[in-house]
Amino acid sequence: MGYGVIYVAHNPRDGNTVFKVGKTERSAAERMVELSADTSNLGTYQALAYFVVTDIDTAETACHQRLSRYRVQRNREFFDLPLARLLRIVREETLRFKANDFVPTIEHEEVPPQLAPAEKLRAARAQQKAREAAWEAALRDSKVTAKKWSEEIRDRAKRAARELSDVDIAQWDISECFETEKKPVPLCKVTVYAKFRSQPVLLDFRGLSGKRYGSLDLSHAVGEPKVTGVISGSSFVEWQEPDDGRVGEVLITIHVDHMGPQHPERVPIPKLCVQANRLRYDDYKCSFKAYSAERNYSDPYEAFEVFLDTVVANVRDVQYDIRSETGTYKGRRKIRDASKFKMGALKND
């Protein structure tokens, strides 16, 4: 851990979209001279940008993890992507390590004239009103941006669904509405399924049904569901249905992040979130359990690329007969779940 510089360097011989992201404890200019003088490198390196950080090792690791999907070679610090996107990503990842600004010492402090209490109150109210107006304007702008992003994502999702229409293990669910709420709104979800060579195993399910919990989807139930108890007007229901082969799901959501007008210092900003859920059957709780990984993005193009890459990684190989009954334990049927689901760039670090 130590102060240093995270730099973005370019060598024209590497091409227009290949850049090096590295670290140095010296100046960026000294590092460029050193890189250019290395006999294994051809051409001259130029530092296009650099960021002074408090922890160069952790900051560089964060940048490389975020950029891993653009890496040219596994063992080298070169990445192939547009410069504007690269700079935004590096700036976002180094922000939490940003070094303090240098502030010169001031010998004499000028004391401003004191305002009368009534003037102070008027000034405070005017400042508060200005902050609230700025917050409302930021909220309107964020909603416009979020709507624009949602339309772009939906268009790309529809094109991808058409191009991958022959992939019968992927079910696309693309939303047609947009609501600018604080909570995330799903724009697109792809559910990945396995196939069967043998008869699907019957899975046991449990659930609550009633005014508080709503009704259960029993459309795939085999036989008559059993009501095993009632409490406060809600019924405990048990039933069986054939395994549908679900493996996992990838979804992309959007929302405007803010804490409300009572916190004008928290500026509303639109956020895209890509989430992957690995779905495993839990034979103890008699339900599917989701193991999730997610990441937020401020660029609709990057977000959709990560979303689509995660989908492609999981439909590339077809899985068969992923669940089977392996016996009983204390009167409970044991179900082995051998499904695999890749999280890709969303994997929790």
Explain what you see.
- This protein has 349 residues and is an alpha+beta fold.
- The chain has three domains: 4-97; 115-201 and 243-349, no CATH class; 203-241.
- It has five helices and 14 strands.
- It has a five-stranded antiparallel β-sheet with strand order 5-6-10-11-12. It has a four-stranded antiparallel β-sheet with strand order 3-1-2-4, sandwiched between helices.
- Helix 2 (56-66) crosses helix 3 and helix 4 (117-163) packs parallel to helix 5 (300-315).
- It is globular, with a radius of gyration of 27 Å.
Keywords, separated by commas or semicolons:
349 residues; alpha+beta; 14 strands; 33% strand
Q: Distance between termini?
A: 19 Å
Number of helices: 5
Helix share, percent: 25-40%
Main sheet summary: 5 strands, antiparallel
Trace the largest sheet across and list its strands: 5-6-10-11-12
Based on helices, strands and strand pairing, what is the structural class?
alpha+beta
* Mean residue pLDDT: 89
- The succession of helices and strands, N to C, reads EEHEHEHHEEEEEEEEHEE
Which spans have pLDDT < 50 for at least 5 consecutive residues? none
Q: Estimate the global geometry from the Cα principal axes.
A: globular
- Number of structural units classed as domains: 3
Summarize the structure.
The chain has 349 residues and is of the alpha+beta class.
Helix-strand layout with pairing:
Elements: E1 4-10, E2 18-24, H1 28-37, E3 46-53, H2 56-66, E4 78-80, H3 83-94, H4 117-163, E5 170-174, E6 185-193, E7 202-209, E8 222-231, E9 234-242, E10 246-257, E11 269-282, E12 287-297, H5 300-315, E13 323-329, E14 332-337
Antiparallel strand pairs: 1-2, 1-3, 2-4, 5-6, 6-10, 7-9, 8-9, 10-11, 11-12, 13-14
Helix pairs in contact: 2-3, 4-5
